[in-house]
Structure formats: C-alpha cells, structure tokens
Amino acid sequence: MSITRPGPQRARAMTVFVLSIGIGAALGLLIGGVLTTSLGWEWVMFVNIPIGVVVLVGVRLLVPEAPRAPARLDVGGAVASTAGMTALVYGLITAESQGWSSPPVVGSFALAFAGLLALVLIERRHSAPVVPLEFFTRMRSAAPLLAMMLIPAGQAGFLYFAALFTQNALGFTPLQTGLSVLPFSAALLVTNVLTSRLVTRYGERIVGSLGMLGLLTGLLRLSRIEAADTFAGGLLGPFVLLGLGAGLTIAPLTAVIMHQAPPAQVGAASSLNQGMQQLGGALGLAVMTTVYGSGAGGVHEAGAIAAALTTGVVFPLLALILFATWARPTATTHS
Q1: What's the whole-model pTM score?
Q2: What do you get for the CA distance between the two ends of the chain, in Å?
Q3: Contact, 211 vs 248, CB < 8 A?
Q4: Partner of 92 for a Cys bridge, out of 14, 125, 286, 309, CB 3.0 to 4.6 A?
C-alpha cells in the first residue's frame, strides 16, 4: 500500500485496511461463538485453513508485484528474532505457575536474551536485515514502532478478559460473548469511515493521540469492574470507547511508521509494523494473565480480572506518551 498508494491515497488505503481488520474481528467473534457452541472450540482452528487458501490465491492473482532489488534472505535474523520472542513470551506465561526463579522460566529468559543479542549481531552485518536496526536508533522512528507494540498489548488483554468476565461472571454462552463485543466492532467501523478525513485535516499525531486517549479511558473504566456489574452498566460504555479509540489509532500510527521508511526498506517496515503488533499482543496478554492468575477463582474472579486490566492501562498510556512526543506528520496532512 505504501508503494502503490502515494499521498492522500495512502491514508485512504490504510483506513480501508484497518476497516477490514474491524470487520474480520467482528465476524470472527460471531462465527467463533457459533462454532464453539455447535461443534466445539477445535473448529475455530480448522476454519482458518480455507480462509488461508483463499488469501493465498487472492494475493497471487490480485496484488501487484512491488519493485525490489535482489537480496539474500536473512534466515539468521528471522530465526534469532523468532526464538528470542518465543522464549520471552513462554517465560512470562510460565512464571505465574512455576515461579520466577524456576529453571524453565530462568532458562526461557536466558534464551530470550541470547536470541535478541544474536539478532543484533546478525542484523549489524546483513545487507538486507529483516529487522533494520536503524529503525530503533532514532526516537523519531522507534517511538511509533514501540507505540504499535503497546497498543495491541492492551487490546489483547481487553478482549480476553472481557470474554472471561461475560462467561464466568455474567453467565454468557460463547455466542452471547461474541455478540457482546459487537459495540466495540461497530464503534471501530464508524471511526474508520472518518479517520482518513480527520488525518488529512488534523494530522496523524492529533488523531492518533486522541484514539490512544480513548483506549486509555476505556481500559481505565474496565479496570474498575466489579462482580455486581451488568453488561450495560459495566461493559457497554468501555467497549464503545475502546472501539472508537482503536479506529482512530491504528491507521495514523501505521502511516507514520511507513512514512519513516526509505523506499528500499518499505517491506521491512511493513513486516516490523505487523510483527510489533503480534509481539505486543502476546507480551501484553502474558503479563496480564500472570497478574490475573495470582488472584483468580471463586469470589475473587472479578477482582483478578480488574487487577489484570489495571496492569493493561499502562500500555496505552506509554503509547500515548511516545506517539504524542515523537510522531512527525506525513505529507498527507493539510491544515
């Protein structure tokens, strides 16, 4: 999109991209609820196979080839980054059940450190690194990437713990839980329709910061949840706020990240953009489930969920500080 959609077209393309994510999230929750209720949770995994086949064929037929210079694959960087991040997430997930000083946890963190150290050493010497280190040596480019990692960290926890609360505290079925998140998806879709125009008028930093403020406010309200809360009284408002915030955040943040990359590194920037989102979601959920696990069960269930969500508030707060301080406008902004 960054190569084939210049200027204002790029902002619209990013908006459509995020819009498709919102539609996919809404459909995924609904279809997942139906499959879990009727056939079992295993079918939620199987349904991804035909979807993946359709995507592969569609990309092959419809997406044009981008111009690129010949370069050797950075296999070492890919292996080191994957091993390091996997070990880090595993250590965080395992720490609550086995203890922070247990051999599996200590070993996982040691492997994570070794993997990240190897990644730095490999990328410094590779002509076409999978993770260009210069993206992280300047705050102007590093801050949006870090913010892109922090935003999904809070969102993943919200979706996970909202599902826990609706089913464990409110007694919802999987299908009802999927339906309960529709206000979030609807708010996300509505803001996506407006995001391109807002970015063109006010710039990515203002629109993105406003979105992060919405995410922060929604998570802060959810962190006050109590066992006596109903869906309408405790969840509906935060769900709408989180949807509005997400719709205003991802497209401007993505545009800033891609604008920082020189043409030769657009592919690497796009991969980093997606990778940071996946990493952030995994790390955020690992941290929040660790907090939740220390107080879950029985009458303490709602309190444990609230404690986990309180931890999650930190993620959009840090993202807002980074983005508002360091983000620079792109050429799509008009006053």
Answers
A1: 0.80
A2: 24
A3: yes
A4: 286
